[in-house]
Amino acid sequence: MQKDKIENLVWFRNDLRTIDNTVLSEATNKGSKVFGVYCFDPKQFEIDAFGFKKTEKYRAKFLIETVENLKAQLSNHNIDLLVYHEHPEEIIPSICETYDVSNIYLQKEWTQEEIDVENAVKEKINNVSWHHIYNQFLYHPEDINFEIHQTPQVFTVFRKKLEKYITIRHESTIKKQSETNRIENETRIPTLTDLGFEDFETHTNSAFPFKGGETEALQRLEDYFFITKKLGFYKKTRNGLVGKDYSSKFSPWLANGSISARKIYWNVKHFEKEHYNNESTYWLIFELIWRDYFRYISLKHGNSIFKLDGILNKNYEWKTDQKLIDNWINGNTKSDFVNANMIELKETGWMSNRGRQNVASYFAKELQLDWRIGAAYFESLLLDYDVHSNYGNWMYVAGVGNDPRDRKFNAQLQAERYDSKGNYRNLWLQLSLF
Ligand code: FAD
User: Fold this and answer.
1) Cys-Cys link to 301, which of 127, 250, 311, 319 (CB 3.0-4.6 A)?
2) Which domains does the chain have, with CATH numbers?
3) Separation of CA 205 and ligand 1 centre (Å)
4) How many CA atoms lie within 13 A of 363 on its CB side?
């Protein structure tokens, strides 16, 4: 039987987009025959060391929507996406053989689980060139003015080293493939049921009533920046708790790479040129620099970000009392502000930044529970789970990371300040009465 000859494989992981995707850009500009693969890795739906499902239903649904959209967008460029519900190490080697793949292009990752999967695939493949490309940064690691191991331990120092001196790269473009390159694609995107979940509706109180996928991400950007112009008020509203517009809500799309940080950056610049620049337009970029920061911290410190003593090697006493953990998860603590936030997370997979800071501080500093358990619960539930931002922020709040002031949040005072009329608490706490 004649084999299809398609030489260039793009292995999609957390870069599920066609616009400003440098991996896809490199593959399509260098090679003439390109196709893609995405694996819903069963490992991502297993139970973790702390007893949580690694990916809960909210992110699972969002991911399915994302991959559906990616497949359609790629198809517009005559690129096929093969989708499997299999371990990459089981399926990618056989794909390479079937299609005589000679190059694999993928986003460069450095955290342990991603490296383990990659190595398991590599062990089973010979004669393929691997192309690992940084595809997830605002400030590209090849452009910065210090060595990774010299990444400052304090965010402000990091930011000041970059923002005035380093230019953000322009968005990369992809080359449309010839129609003759299309391959027969009988693969099927798994359903929620295939992944072990029941279908569900988005909660009517949800602050994140959006869908997964590049198209939705771009629509949100258009809406938040150019239609409602909420970007112009971001700094004033960003500590909000209720509704879809107090913050950009870009994080779930950024986390799985449906949109790039650069795309957002260049659109802020576009907005500033077309309308005005103010503290708010600057502040959105400021927050994207935080996102980069935690990526540089994980690059610098490797697996220490997952260790109880964190990157500071702090030897605190931590508890693992199951009752305290369950009360936190279910919104049964002594703090009604913490409870409302935890119920929101459980019902929607979303929580505001203000809420996250408070519930994490309460978990680690008030209850003195092993912060990694809280982080693992977030990993399971969050729509926008991102390994670097999650573990970086948890370490920060728990006092084993990059907070030079090692602050503890007073949930009572925070509630009075950010939810003075109790609207947010009422919204979610009434659910716990039924
Ligand atoms: P906006 O306020 O509109 O900000 C724009 C973008 O800037 C965000 O989408 C995000 O990419 C970035 N950003 C903002 N704040 C931070 C921050 N503190 N750290 C890193 N990037 C930031 N964010 C995640 O994306 N994934 C996580 O798993 C995650 N876990 C967190 C855990 C804890 C304990 C805490 C305190 C924060 C965590 N964050 C995480 C950061 C932050 O809460 C979310 O990025 C933000 O709430 C997302 O909402 P938004 O997109 O509307 O943000």
Assistant:
1) 311
2) 8-135 (3.40.50.620), 214-301 (1.25.40.80), 307-433 (1.10.579.10)
3) 20
4) 33
